[in-house]
């Protein structure tokens, strides 16, 4: 059983930055994918950025050039720069088949 806890969300003005963190605990297999997803009200959950089992990084088109995913042992981060109001959503961390509870990101215009 893996527990994932996200942190770092909050309210920021458009153009600002936030750094999300996700800490994993429990039975952790290092060779698993990681992902940051988000879900805005009335919309489906979507992948924002991920790290594959092979270590490759991938980004949604909306995140390219603005967001950076990184990993440090049992933590994964999402650095978000140049935030836009449309980035407002609950952001979830996923490791393998396990999900965190999410952290709210709100970007004001």
What percentage of amino acids are in beta strands? Answer: over 45%
Shape: globular
N-to-C span: 40 Å
Secondary-structure content class:
mainly beta
* Rg computed from alpha carbons, rounded to a whole number of angstroms: 13 Å
Which percent range fits the helix content? under 10%
Tally of DSSP helical segments:
0
Mean pLDDT: 94
Per DSSP E runs of 2 or more residues, the count of β-strands stands at 11
Characterize the main sheet.
7 strands, mixed
Order of helices and strands: EEEEEEEEEEE
Unreliable stretches: none
Task: Explain what this protein looks like in three dimensions.
The chain has strands spanning 2-7, 10-13, 18-26, 34-39, 46-51, 57-59, 67-72, 75-80, 89-95, 98-99, 103-108. The protein is mostly beta strands and 109 residues long. The strands form two sheets. Strands 2, 4, 5, 6, 9, 10 and 11 form a seven-stranded mixed sheet that branches. It has no helices and eleven strands.
Which labels suit this protein?
109 residues; mainly beta; seven-stranded mixed beta sheet; 56% strand
Structure, briefly:
The chain is mainly β.
Strands, helices and their partners?
Blueprint (H helix, E strand, L loop, with lengths): L1 E6 L2 E4 L4 E9 L7 E6 L6 E6 L5 E3 L7 E6 L2 E6 L8 E7 L2 E2 L3 E6 L1
Parallel strand pairs: 2-11
Antiparallel strand pairs: 1-3, 3-8, 4-5, 4-9, 5-6, 7-8, 9-10, 9-11
């Amino acid at each position: 059983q893996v527990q994932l806890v996200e942190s770092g969300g909050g309210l920021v003005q458009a153009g600002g930055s936030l750094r999300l963190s996700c800490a994993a605990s429990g039975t952790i297999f290092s060779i698993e994918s990681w992902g940051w997803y988000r879900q805005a009200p009335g919309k489906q959950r979507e992948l924002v950025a991920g790290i594959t089992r092979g270590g490759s990084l991938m980004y949604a088109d909306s995140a390219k050039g603005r967001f950076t995913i990184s990993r440090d042992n049992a933590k994964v981060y999402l650095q978000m720069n140049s935030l836009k109001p449309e980035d407002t959503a609950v952001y979830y961390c996923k490791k393998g088949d396990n999900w965190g509870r999410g952290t709210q990101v709100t970007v004001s215009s």
